[in-house]
Design goal:
Elements (H helix, E strand, L loop, with lengths): L3 E10 L1 H12 L7 E8 L8 E13 L4 H16 L8 E6 L3 H6 L5 E3 L3 E4 L11 E4 L12 H13 L5 E5 L5 H8 L4 E6 L2 H13 L6 E5 L2 H5 L8 E7 L2 H10 L5 E13 H13 L2 E9 L2 E8 L1
Parallel strand pairs: 6-7, 8-9, 8-11, 9-10, 11-12
Antiparallel strand pairs: 1-3, 1-4, 2-3, 5-6, 12-14, 13-14
Helix pairs in contact: 1-2, 4-5, 8-9
């Protein structure tokens, strides 16, 4: 038997924690690669199936002289995350060199979201059955479509976006929301993030989906948009899938000013106990509630600019 070249690390968590765990693992795994595995149920009308149950999040550490140091730093990072919400202990498995890439890929499946969207990894081959396919490279952990906040954002985007509209995505992560908007027939999108790695991921995923010419990607946030650093400054649809404290700060920076009168602001990344406070802040910015959607403890809001 060949000597193991990789150490697989995995944690099985619920949907609410999956992307947070994936982000931590991506700091330590090979090329930031992280995958997520979830059980799937099928009926006679669905080829791709419906994801159910907990998610196994896993990646691969290189077996070299630094392995134990990397493993210790990984476990420290997971411990800090576990102080926010309890986590299971990670499990480890030795993997031979020729097996690790296929092991990483074979567990990442197409994920139907809403009525029309289907999020899939680049290598997946399947019949989309009329769904709009958005391909996202899961080697970048954030925004792969598995987290409830991302799914709720996509559902609301699918519902409120009208063909021919322009879109701004604040805190774009992998670019999944901006890419989905173009696939749903938006004409142009601006996707910004304060993380350079997110900007690169969005650019790569936009090219992967052949929509790069319609998406402007930039380093920045609300202030930079309002300062006119990008081609779009106000649009009918604005998206922010970020945590509640960040959304509150963005409101102070002028988030509501990005939405044209009559337009829709879609907010996600909120816990249920935070949604009421965010709605209250939104009302002071001339935004009226349209809809609230929930998934587990997570909430997404659609608000109309008056």
């Amino acid at each position: 038997m060949a000597e193991p070249r990789w150490l697989e690390v995995s944690l099985t968590v619920d949907e609410e924690l999956a992307e947070a765990v994936a982000e931590v693992l991506s700091r330590f795994t090979t090329q930031g690669g992280v995958a997520m595995e979830q059980a799937v149920t099928y009926d006679v009308y669905e080829v791709e199936g419906q994801p159910v149950g907990p998610i196994r999040v896993f990646g691969y550490l290189v077996v070299d002289a630094h392995l134990e140091e990397v493993r210790q730093r990984l476990e420290e990072a997971l411990w800090h995350l576990g102080q926010i919400q309890p986590l299971p202990s990670p499990t480890y498995r030795w993997v031979e060199d020729q097996d690790w890439m296929e092991a990483w890929k074979q567990h990442y499946h197409p994920l139907p979201i809403g009525e029309r969207l289907l999020v899939a990894p680049p290598w997946a081959e399947f019949d989309p059955q009329g769904r709009v396919v958005v391909r996202i490279d899961p080697s970048m952990a954030f925004g792969t479509g598995t987290h409830p906040s991302t799914q709720l954002s996509l559902e609301l985007l699918e519902h409120y976006l009208q063909p021919g509209q322009e879109v701004i995505d604040v805190g774009c992560g992998s670019g999944i929301l901006a890419i989905a908007a173009i696939k749903l027939r938006a004409t142009r999108a601006l996707a910004v993030d304060i993380d350079q790695a997110a900007v690169r991921a969005t650019e790569e995923n936009a090219h992967l989906n052949d929509v790069a010419s319609q998406i402007e990607v930039g380093l920045g946030s609300v202030r930079e948009i309002l300062q006119g650093r990008f081609s779009l400054r106000r649009t009918p649809i604005v998206l922010a899938n970020i945590l509640a404290p960040v959304i509150k700060a963005l409101f102070e920076d002028g988030l509501a000013d990005l939405v044209i009168p009559g337009g829709v602001l879609i907010l996600s990344g909120l816990l249920q106990e935070q949604a009421t406070e965010i709605e209250h802040v939104a009302k002071t910015k001339k935004l009226t509630p349209l809809e609230q959607r929930t998934s587990g403890d997570w909430v997404a809001l659609a608000l109309r600019k008056v």
